[in-house]
């Protein structure tokens, strides 16, 4: 899920695709109206094909990406006013029937004309973005992508460059600290409550590696695939961690403060278990966090939380 900061909207794209759900439409939640808007049909399976460039595409009237897991791979590019998707349809069973794809590109969606476009389809640089974790760095004007290494898509040129070697970001969430201009990773394939911060050369500003941090403060359970977002005003992250234990069925809410490298649990922040969820943002219009829960066969719920700033003292 991405936050369209120009329009103050939540933008959802992605699907289950394990033979149950093939949703490849755009879904937009408008907080001020408390309603969902839907753009584009779910493309019929008979429109799934490989185009002349080897890109898997679908749609009868307009070109769409295949339905796919998007994990943490959907971001808003505030420089170009577009949604960027770094993902791949590797779990879509249609791939076993419609074969021959040579490229799994980055995709962009234009909120103004509701059109999909292929971005950076150079297969020699990166063949698959499956399981990617992403964040948009407004300061450096780039989409940062962690998938078999760290990649930077420059917003001004759409030039894609690999900036760090291999690092496994499957089931991690990436989030950007807009105050300190730092990039963070939360969670891991094997649940962990550690945090990773991207280190940069102080002279050149080039990435040099990931620093593994062990936060202090309140004890957070090990977690994976967590919803995470950064509060631009208060300078802290909010994250949801499912509570361990067979049949626990619930989750806890934590603040992560980069200044102190510490967790602080929000005592009344208990939620139903969120499972694999990358759908939380901070809304700078309403000064609240929005979290979307549910899946293709259960009710969709939008939650809102405004931080009590006394918790930050």
Protein described:
The chain has 313 residues and is an all-beta fold. It has two domains: 170 residues, Kelch-type beta propeller (Neuraminidase), CATH 2.120.10; 130 residues. Helix content is 0%, strand content 42%. The chain contains no helices and 27 strands. The strands form seven sheets. A five-stranded mixed β-sheet has the order 20-24-23-22-21, with no helix packed on it. A four-stranded antiparallel β-sheet has the order 1-2-3-4, with no helix packed on it. It is globular, with a radius of gyration of 19 Å. The mean pLDDT is 93.
Keywords:
Neuraminidase, single chain, 313 residues, four-stranded antiparallel beta sheet, 2 domains, mainly beta
Secondary-structure map:
Layout: E1 2-4, E2 9-12, E3 26-30, E4 35-39, E5 49-50, E6 56-58, E7 64-65, E8 74-77, E9 82-85, E10 106-110, E11 115-119, E12 133-137, E13 142-146, E14 150-154, E15 160-164, E16 173-177, E17 182-186, E18 195-200, E19 207-213, E20 216-217, E21 228-231, E22 236-242, E23 250-257, E24 262-272, E25 280-283, E26 288-293, E27 301-305
Parallel strand pairs: 20-24
Antiparallel strand pairs: 1-2, 2-3, 3-4, 5-6, 6-7, 8-9, 9-10, 10-11, 12-13, 13-14, 14-15, 16-17, 17-18, 18-19, 21-22, 22-23, 23-24, 25-26, 26-27
Describe the structure in brief.
The chain has about 325 residues and is mainly beta. Helices cover about 0% and strands about 40% of the residues.
């Amino acid at each position: 899920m991405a936050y369209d900061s120009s329009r103050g909207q939540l933008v959802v794209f992605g699907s289950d695709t394990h033979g149950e759900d093939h949703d490849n439409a755009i879904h937009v939640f408008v907080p001020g109206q408390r309603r969902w808007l839907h753009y584009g049909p779910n493309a019929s399976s008979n429109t799934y094909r490989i185009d002349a460039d080897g890109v898997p595409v679908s749609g009868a009237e307009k070109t769409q990406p295949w339905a796919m897991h998007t994990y943490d791979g959907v971001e808003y590019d505030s420089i170009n006013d577009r949604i960027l998707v770094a993902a791949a349809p590797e779990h879509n069973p249609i791939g076993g029937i419609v074969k021959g794809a040579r490229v799994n590109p980055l995709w962009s969606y234009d909120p103004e004309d509701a059109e999909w476009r292929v971005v950076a389809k150079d297969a020699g640089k990166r063949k698959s973005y499956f399981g990617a974790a992403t964040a948009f760095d407004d300061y450096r004007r780039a989409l940062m992508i962690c998938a078999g290494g760290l990649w930077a898509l420059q917003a001004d040129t759409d030039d894609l460059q690999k900036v760090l070697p291999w690092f496994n970001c499957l089931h991690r969430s990436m989030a950007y600290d807009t105050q300190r201009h730092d990039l963070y990773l939360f969670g891991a394939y094997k649940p962990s409550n550690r945090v990773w911060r991207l280190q940069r050369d102080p002279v050149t500003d080039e990435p040099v590696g990931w620093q593994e941090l062990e936060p202090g403060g309140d004890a957070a359970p090990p977690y994976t695939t967590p919803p995470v977002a950064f509060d631009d005003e208060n300078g802290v992250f909010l994250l949801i961690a499912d509570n361990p234990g067979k049949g626990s069925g619930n989750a806890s809410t934590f603040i992560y403060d980069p200044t102190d490298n510490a967790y602080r649990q929000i005592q009344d922040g208990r939620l139903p278990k969120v499972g694999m969820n990358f759908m939380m943002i901070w809304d700078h219009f309403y000064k609240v966090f929005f979290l979307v829960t549910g899946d293709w066969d259960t009710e969709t719920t939008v939650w809102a939380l405004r931080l009590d700033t006394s918790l930050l003292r």
